[in-house]
Amino acid sequence: MSYKQETESGAESPVDSGYGNSSSLKIRGEVILVPRPSDDSRDPLNWGQAKKYIVLSILTLAAFTGHALALANQLGLIAQANLYHKSLTEISYTGVVIVLVFCFIEETGFTRKDGRIYPPQPSKFIPNRIATFFPGTAVAHVGGFKEASHSALAQFLIGISPVSISCGFYLISMCGWFVSLNTLLGVFLQNSVEEGGYGFTPQQSAAFTFTLWIGMFAAQIWGYFVNDRVPLSISKRASGAWKPEYRLHALWIPSVVLMPAGLGLFGSSLQYQLHYMVLAAGAFLVTTSSNMAVPVVLNYLVECFMSHPIEVNCIMSLYRLGLGLGSPFFIEAWVNQVGVGWVFGMMAFCTLASFVPIVVLMKYGHALRLISFGKLNKDEEGVQIVSKEEL
């Protein structure tokens, strides 16, 4: 709905790929697209749905699945390394991704008014592949050292802005406790019952991790059906005008209900040695709620700093991962001090407290967005996104 002006947000190329363009979709249903797609067939916003799904799937494979694959295949890595000197699944996975990227992924930048200037792309497939990948600068925007320095400074300035600090404090809790749980899950599962664990074998521990996969898929389904519908519904009641803070209302359920409940179940299960399915239910809720929250917050911040989506994602990664990666250094002492049940209980209370800044943003977000450094704040508040006929 709202994209960076010089968008790199998953786009169209001049190559006629046959997936079906949708250049007439300047209004989709009752939602007005912002920015409005041009009449240029090369406009990224005139991209057919089929190709969007294909390219998004490939980018997901390339960017994220490798980490998940290592976790899912942890029992096979050593055996495969002894046989092949490399992990066979990793080699085959990487090879498939390379082929898919070469065949389907194209430069997604598109020259817009007052935005970055992108070189024209060859229309034929082979010349386009050569220009895109060998070495790739023939179709991409090249900013040089000056732009790289500006990007680094922008990350810092965005990170210390009030809206980023508020969202970052929230993500520290929502993501930090999830990373902590994920990092220490194997310890809790494989410790003996006498030590407060479940005495799982490595095979049982690996099977338990499917709980996290199911939670991730549940979060994706939730996001597909809820994350856009909630703000659009609120916008429709507000005469169809857009306000970035409408997005944040999709965070109530994961933040106030699911994450605290999941942490409570997980801690109670460890404290009282409840059935491992109770532990699985807690892990599922924590995984689901964390993955439900991150896209909403990042979309909100990207809409607050529309010209700097990459910088927003970079600085938010520090907020998201810092606590989780640091928790193994202090959680053992924490458990020894208050007990494992209260550790996760305190995490649940911290989660509720971290939602307070989000509530503040819901009410005072407009004023806080105006407080920025380096004049980086740029949003689309007030843009009409619901057609008058549908109000």
Give the topology.
Elements: E1 27-28, E2 31-32, H1 49-72, H2 77-84, H3 88-104, H4 125-133, H5 144-159, H6 162-190, H7 202-208, H8 210-227, H9 229-237, H10 252-272, H11 276-304, H12 309-326, H13 331-338, H14 340-354, H15 356-369
Antiparallel strand pairs: 1-2
Helix pairs in contact: 1-3, 5-12, 6-11, 6-12, 6-14, 6-15, 8-11, 10-11, 10-14, 11-12, 13-14
Describe the model.
The protein has 391 residues and is an all-alpha fold. The protein has two domains: 39-147, no CATH class; 151-384, Up-down Bundle (Growth Hormone, Chain: A). 62% of the residues lie in helices and 1% in strands. The protein is built from 15 helices and two strands. The chain has helices at 49-72, 77-84, 88-104, 125-133, 144-159, 162-190, 202-208, 210-227, 229-237, 252-272, 276-304, 309-326, 331-338, 340-354, 356-369, and strands at residues 27-28, 31-32. A two-stranded antiparallel sheet has the order 1-2. Strand 1 and strand 2 (31-32) form a beta hairpin. Helix 1 (49-72) runs antiparallel to helix 3 and helix 11 (276-304) runs antiparallel to helix 12 (309-326). The longest helix has 29 residues, at 162-190. It starts with 26 loop residues before the first strand and ends in a 22-residue tail after the last helix. The chain crosses the membrane at residues 53-71, 91-110, 156-179, 206-227, 248-270, 276-302, 314-335, 341-362. InterPro entries: MFS_trans_sf. Its main location: membrane.
Summarize the structure in short:
The protein has about 400 residues and is mainly α. The chain is built from 15 helices and two strands. The chain has two domains: about 40-145, no CATH class; about 150-385, Growth Hormone, Chain: A (Up-down Bundle).
